[in-house]
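Troubleshooting log. The previous structure file for this entry was overwritten by mistake, so regenerating from the original sequence record. Sequence copied from the archived sheet and checked twice against the printout by T.R.
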Amino acid sequence: MSVLENLEMGAYAYEARKRRHETLDWVFQLFPVLKEREKQLAGTLSGGEGQMLAIGRGLMSKPKLLMLDEPSLGLAPRLVLQIFDILMKINEEGVTVLLVEQNVRRALEIAHRGYVLETGRIVREGEGKKLLENEHVKKAFLGI
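Regenerated output below.
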């Protein structure tokens, strides 16, 4: 399937389908590279572009909550920054973002609220920026 077809599949639900053109414009504003590649086969995208497509497809359903698991995994540092900037924009547009992320520093920098898990248990929680100042978090996750 093409990039465009993948995005359109995200607007499968009735309510999302009614607003798919408006939502598609929004996704293309967030991810201009997807607009450039809308006719390209999705399987030929780079890892970062594929991640953008996956996020865009999720947004096409007009979610109130977008859950992402490790969106920066395996991406070049430049793309990681771009993905996190876009996640902030998505949140500013009124979509709640639940993020599970290995990049602790960057995730907590943008998080309103954070939870630190160790062996499946929550060991710390609070405002993202305050967790960055926590000694346990600094030692265990930031190497400080």
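The domain at 3-102 is CATH 3.40.50.300 (Rossmann fold). Archived copy saved in two places this time.
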